[in-house]
Every structure is written in C-alpha cells, then in structure tokens.
Specification:
Elements (H helix, E strand, L loop, with lengths): L1 E2 L5 H8 L6 H20 L9 E5 L2 E4 H25 L2
Parallel strand pairs: 1-2
Antiparallel strand pairs: 2-3
Length: about 90
Amino acid sequence: MYVIQSYNQDQWVMVQNYQNRPLHEIVNLFQTLNKQIVNIVKNIPNEKLSNLCDIGNNQRKTLEWLIQDYLEHMEHHIHNQILIENNDL
C-alpha cells in the first residue's frame, strides 16, 4: 500500500516564495509539472487503478480515486482561482 505523506501547505507555499516570483515562472512550472503528471497517469496499467493508498486519518482510497480527486482539485483552482480572479482585474 502506498502511504501519502502529509505536509504543511502554507509552509510549502512560503518556502517556495510563489508570491514574489514572476507569473510566467509559476505558469511554466504549473504546466510542466502537470504535463509530467498526465504522462504518468497515461502509463498506469488499468489493473493498478484499484490499488489502495493510505491518505491519512485512517482513510484508504484507490489510485483511481486519487487521480479523479486531483483532476477535480485542479479544475477548482483553474476555474475559481485563476479564471475568475483574472476576470476581476
């Protein structure tokens, strides 16, 4: 079983200093990382999608669930935090 390590998101953002980096660097990083994730997901054998992952708090989810959750999470960020906020400028 794969165990997902938790981390302090606020601390991670602070250490990465995203607030003070040029927007084009952040967009490039976002695109590059997500292209890599797409490549990895495309190459996961179907029989592995049912593998369980420990996501903490005594919760276990399938790898397929984690992938779908990530997609929904990214959709939330792109739609609610990038598109809507940029329309308000």
